[in-house]
Design a protein that fits this description.
six-stranded parallel sheet, single chain, alpha/beta, Rossmann fold, 2 domains, globular
Length: 367
């Protein structure tokens, strides 16, 4: 089986984690003879290629008409059985079966501008009409897609993502060194993600303002920098008078990320909209208790492995957080429950399910 995949978003948050694991997983399957991966210039992971992987550089910018034309032209130079687009902007002029993964429709629900919403709508509509099969990472995303595009119901399937082995409760030799380099506080809450409005960080800071009163040594550590998109976070912390207890850690590599998960008192995730939700899953895999809102895909991912409270209910969020911080037995109990839930998500199973979809599409195409 010869597969093509658009891997240019290999380092783009959750989509990037999905792409990297999908490509490496497919490359290890005997029935996959070639994986043609289109990458951005300077791609470290795919630059040289390995095994069945055939990397190709695509210089066209993301979210441009030229990327759709250019990529479509280049795909036709190679013999492939199908093409998998892990995002909703698909190449034009494809002559082989297309599979599309749509992680969420965030750009329709929380658009930056009406123009951005119109662009996203047209691109998603074109993608779902052209695709033989549409993959979503959660039942929530599937329902959202069907609600907006009812015609896709019979060709939309759910395949959950997985977890890498380095997200583990077991400490590593470099944990202390990483903690020292990052200057991590002894006691901290941890948040992972961008700072866009739907992440609801303002409400998190409101809760922290109250929580800090009862726990004078507690801090909040966030990935990202002060100037990240939606960068009102630091100014809000200043307005609440808690800026000295809020730390911005910047972008963390996987090793440092897993160290932070392991050493956090609680992982907090106040997001209002997720298509899947890697961060709470990663935190659970590291044995850290999770407090999040019961919204979007999060009940599917977190399940009974974390404390889920009603969306936008700051008081309930505060009470859940306070209970874990106050009682070590609860903290241990929720950490153990999270480990049980996290074990359900494995890339090996996800890859097998992707392969099953590929076989189905090829079988239908040959009829």
């Amino acid at each position: 089986m010869r597969i093509g995949i658009d891997a240019r978003k290999e380092w783009d948050g959750g989509i990037g984690r999905y792409i990297r694991n999908l490509v490496s997983g497919l490359e290890g399957e005997d029935e996959i003879t070639q994986v043609h991966a289109w990458v951005k210039p300077g791609s470290e992971m795919f630059r040289k290629g390995f095994g069945s992987l055939r990397p190709h550089v695509e210089r066209a910018g993301l979210y441009s008409l030229w990327e759709q034309v250019s990529l479509g032209q280049k795909i036709r130079r190679f013999v492939m059985d199908l093409f998998h687009e892990p995002h909703y902007v698909i190449p034009l002029f494809l002559r082989i079966p297309l599979i599309v993964t749509i992680h969420d429709i965030i750009h329709l629900v929380f658009p930056r501008t009406p123009v951005h919403k119109l662009y996203a709508y047209k691109q998603i509509r074109y993608a779902v009409r052209r695709a033989r099969v549409i993959i979503t990472p959660s039942e929530f995303s599937r329902r959202e897609l069907i609600k907006n595009f009812p015609e896709v119901e019979n060709k939309c399937v759910v395949i959950f993502h997985g977890l890498e082995a380095f997200f583990s409760p077991e400490p590593t030799e470099r944990d202390k060194e990483i903690k020292d380099d990052l200057k991590l506080p002894d006691s901290f809450l941890f948040y992972v993600g961008n700072h866009k409005p739907h992440k609801n960080l303002q409400q998190l800071l409101e809760v922290c303002r109250e929580i800090f009163k009862g726990f004078p040594d507690l801090h909040l550590c966030l990935t990202g920098a002060r100037g990240d998109e939606g960068g009102t976070v630091y100014r809000t912390a200043c307005r609440y008078g808690i800026e000295h207890r809020v730390r911005f850690l910047g972008k963390l590599e996987n090793e440092a990320l897993s160290t932070c998960y392991r050493h956090a008192r609680v992982f907090v995730f106040p997001s209002l909209y997720e298509g899947f939700g890697f961060p709470p899953l990663e935190a659970m895999a590291c044995g850290t208790p999770v407090v999040a809102f019961a919204t979007a895909s999060l009940p599917e991912v977190i399940g009974k492995g974390g404390l889920l409270v009603q969306p936008r209910d700051g008081k309930a969020f505060y009470q859940a957080l306070f209970s874990i911080l106050e009682r070590e037995d609860l903290r241990r109990s929720w950490g153990e429950k999270g480990l049980v839930q996290a074990r359900k998500f494995r890339w090996e199973r996800s890859i097998r399910e992707h392969l099953s979809i590929y076989r189905q599409v090829l079988s239908e195409s040959s009829v």
